[in-house]
Amino acid sequence: MPRIPYAEKGSEAEGATAVYAQLEAEFGFVPNLLKVLGHSGPATHAMGVVLDNLFHHLSLAPRIREMAYLTVAKKNDCAYCVGHHSFFAKQAGITDEEIALLGESGLTTTGFSEGEKAVIRFALETTKNVAASNEAHTELQKAFPINQVVEIAFVVATANFIQRIGKNFGIELEQ
Question: Which sequence spans correspond to the domains of the chain?
Fold first, then answer.
């Protein structure tokens, strides 16, 4: 049960309607995270911009984006984000077995490339410590061009940002 009611379509704050329409057109529904933010037009609008950039404007391969996001979601024990991003990960070609390995065990498996392990390490360290170690940065910069290093950091920060909203409000996965 969420800590505040969802702002259902038609009861959202002024400024949230366009984001609701965009998400419904793209995903077929308005995610509960946005329905909580829907009580504030500016917050909903800002999240809409973040999500649009996350899904449509980064140069990262969707596989790398979802590995970074899901690693954070699993570290934060965010069932809502794990539910949504497992779906996106599968669309990006990540298998159920790989999804299960995202986290500490992903650092030692032979199933991921060195670059993918660098993404996992960076996501884990950033989520736990706010800043990743010099070693994690070095590994990431060996595997990816600088713009993608920045984008990986953006994905990891975005995941942590969204999950702190979702977990604070007890947002439930849509049925």
Answer: 17-56, 62-169
Quick one: three-class SS letters along 2-50? CCCCCCCCCCCCCCCHHHHHHHHHHHCCCCHHHHHHCCCHHHHHHHHHH
**Residue 158 and residue 175: Cα distance in Å, rounded?**
24
How far is 107 from 116, CA to CA, in rounded Å?
A: 9
For residue 18, give both structure tokens. 């366009």
Interhelix angle 146-169/79-91, rounded to 10 degrees, is 140
CA-to-CA separations, 39 to 27, 51, 155, 157, in angstroms, rounded: 20, 18, 25, 23
114-152 per-position pLDDT tens digit: 999 999 999 999 999 999 999 999 999 999 999 999 999
CA-wise closest residue to 69 among 143, 27, 123, 146: 123
Look up tokens 């965009």; give the residue.
22
Q: Residues 125, 103, 135, 112: what is their CA dihedral angle, to the nearest 10 degrees?
A: -150
CB 103 within 8 A of CB 75: yes
Q: Which residue has the tokens 């329409």?
A: 21
| Whole-structure pTM value | 0.95
First to last CA, the chain: 13
User: Thinking of the domain 62-169, which architecture would CATH place it in?
Assistant: Up-down Bundle (1.20)
Q: Cα separation of 10 and 3, whole Å?
A: 20
